[in-house]
Amino acid sequence: MSERLWNVLTDSFLKILIPGIQITIPLTVISFAIGLVLSVLLAVVQVANIKVLKQISQIYIWIFRGTPLLVQLFIIFFGLPRIGIMIPAFPSAVIAFSLNVAAYNAEAVRAAMLAVPKGQIEAAYLIGMTYPQILFRIIIPQAFPISFPSLFNNLISLVKDTSLASSITIVELFAKAQQEAARTFETFGLYCEAALIYLIFCTVLTWLQNAIEKHMGWKTKPGRLAALQLRIKEAETENA
Question: Which residue, 100, 38, 90, is CA-closest to 68?
Answer without folding.
Answer: 100
